[in-house]
Amino acid sequence: MSERAGYHVSYDAAGDVVIDAADGAPELPAAEAPQDGAGCHAGGTMEDAARAAGQSELLDGFARDYPQGPHDKPQSMCPAFGSLRVGLRMKRVATILSGSACCVYGLTFVSHFYGARRSVGYVPFNSETLVTGKLFEDIREAVHEIADPDKLDAVVVTNLCVPTASGVPLRLLPPEIDGVRIVGIDVPGFGVPTHAEAKDVLAGAMLNYARKEIEAGPVAMPQGGRSDRPTVSLLGEMFPADPMMIARMLEPLGLAVGPVVPCREWRELYAALDCGAVAAIHPFYTSAVREFQAAGRPVVGSAPVGHDGTAAWLAAIGETFGLAAATVGEAQNAVLPAIRAGLAAAPVRGTITLSGYEGSELLVARLLIESGADVPYVGTACAKSPWSAEDAAWLEAKGTKVQFRASLEDDCAAMEAIRPDLAIGTTPVVQKGKELGIPALYFTNLISARPLMGVAGAGALAQVVNAAIGNKDRMNRMRAFFEGVGQGDSAGVWQGSPNLQPQFRAQNAKKLERAQKRADAERMI
C-alpha cells in the first residue's frame, strides 16, 4: 500500500488468523417484549419499544446511515432478506436468524427461491424466553454448537424486528469460538428501510471485523494471491461480467480490480481493504464506505457506464491514484470509441420510466439515455448519497426527474402521468403498468441481470427493452380482451352485479382509526 494511505495489510505465511477469545458470559439485562401484534409494519410502536430496551444508539445509527426522507419508508420486501442473501452466498459462513417464526419462514422460503443451497439456522422463542433473557442464552448455545472451525470461518447471527425491539444484545456474544468468527447484526424492518441497504449492514459489520483483524497482525492471504498492481475494490453486487470489463479498462492505467464487496469468502475482505481506492458502484453502502475510509481508502462514485460515465469515471480513478493525464487519456481512447459504436449499433427508441430498489437505477437510466431513450423519471428506493451525486446531476441535466427514496405511489404516479412506451420497475409497478396497457419489465430480474459496464454494457439493454416496447399492440389486445372482468371486490365474471357491502369496510376503517388514536395517546403518556 502507498504511504499516503497509511494503512498496511500484512499477510501471514500459513494463512492463519489468531483472535483473542472473550472469556466468560456477561450478565444480561432483562429484555422487554414489544406489544402484541407488533411487527415490521408497526411503525413507531416497535421503534419506541426498541428505544425503551436500550437500542437508541443502534436506531440513531440507522437513521444516519439510511436517512428516510422525503417519505417515511419505501415499500420493499423484508430488509433482512438482503443481509441473509449476502451471508448465504459466502463460503464457509453459517447463518442464524432470531425472530418471529413467520418472519423466519418467509425469509427462508424466499432465500431458497432465489437459489440458496444451505440451511438457515433459527432460534425459536416465546414471551418468557424473550423477557427473561433466556433467548440470548439460547442464541449463545446455538452459536457454540454450530461453530466448527473445520467447516466454518464465520457465523452470522441476525436479530429481526421483535428481538431488536426487545433489546436482545447480540453485541455480547463472544467475538470468536474456536477460531470461528461470530458476527451479530440487527436488521429490523423499522430501522433499515430496504433490503438493498441491509446488504450494507452485514458487509459493513464484516469489514469492521476484518479491519480489526488486520490491525491486530498478519491475516490470511487471498486464495488467488496478492495483486502485483494497486487495486480498485468494487462496492455493490453486479453482473459477473462487469468486474471483468472494469479490469480491462483499468489495465492501461497500471491498475487491477480488487474483490467485489459483498464478498464471497472471508479472506476476500482483507484483499478488499488492501486496495488503493474503492469504487462505489452502488452508492448506498454507507457502512462499508465508513470502514474503507477508516482504513484510509479514497472512494470514487458513479461507474464506467456508457460513454460519458466511462470517461468521467476513468478520469476520477486517474486523479485518485495521481496518474498523468496522458495515461488516463490513453485508457479512455482504448475503450470510448468501442462504447460509442456499441451504443450506436443498438439504439433504443421510446419514452421509459424507470424505478427500483437495487441501487443501480441511476446507472441504468444513464445507459438508456445514451442509447437514445427518453427517460423523464427515475425513482430509487435508496437514499441520496455523495456517491450518486454525479449521476443525479448528469440525469437532471438531461431533463430527468430523479426521485430518491421513491415510494410506490411516486413511481405509479409518474408512470400514469407520463404514459411511457415502457415502464421498468418493481413488481407492483409492472402490474399497474400492464393494467393500463403499458409494456412493463421487472427491474431486478430483467434489467439488473445484464452487464452495464464498458463495452459489454453498450447495447446490452437494447434487445430486451426494444422487444418490450414492441409489445404495445399486444398489451392493448390483452387489455381489451379482459375489459369488464372487474377488479377488487368485483373481480371476475358475474352473471349479475356482485353484492358489495361498503358499510362493512367503513365500519372496519373506523375501528382501525380508533385503535390508532388509542395507541398514539398511550405513547404520549
From TrEMBL:
Q: Which UniProt keywords apply?
A: Bacteriochlorophyll biosynthesis, Chlorophyll biosynthesis, Membrane, Oxidoreductase, Photosynthesis, Plasmid, Transmembrane, Transmembrane helix
Tell me the Gene Ontology biological-process terms attached to this UniProt entry: bacteriochlorophyll biosynthetic process; photosynthesis
Q: What metabolic or biological pathway is this protein involved in?
A: Porphyrin-containing compound metabolism; bacteriochlorophyll biosynthesis
Q: Does the keyword Oxidoreductase apply?
A: yes
Q: Which residues cross the membrane?
A: 93-114
**In terms of domain of life, where is this protein from?**
Bacteria
Q: How is this protein named in the record?
A: Chlorophyllide reductase subunit Y
Q: Which InterPro entries does the entry link to?
A: BchY, LIPOR_BchN/ChlN, Nase/OxRdtase_comp1, Protochlorophyllide_Rdtase
Gene Ontology cellular component terms for the protein in this record: membrane
Q: PANTHER family this protein is in?
A: LIGHT-INDEPENDENT PROTOCHLOROPHYLLIDE REDUCTASE SUBUNIT N
Q: Where is the Nitrogenase/oxidoreductase component domain?
A: 78-468
Instruction: Extract the Pfam families matched here.
Output: Oxidored_nitro
Which GO molecular function terms does the record list? oxidoreductase activity, acting on iron-sulfur proteins as donors, NAD or NADP as acceptor
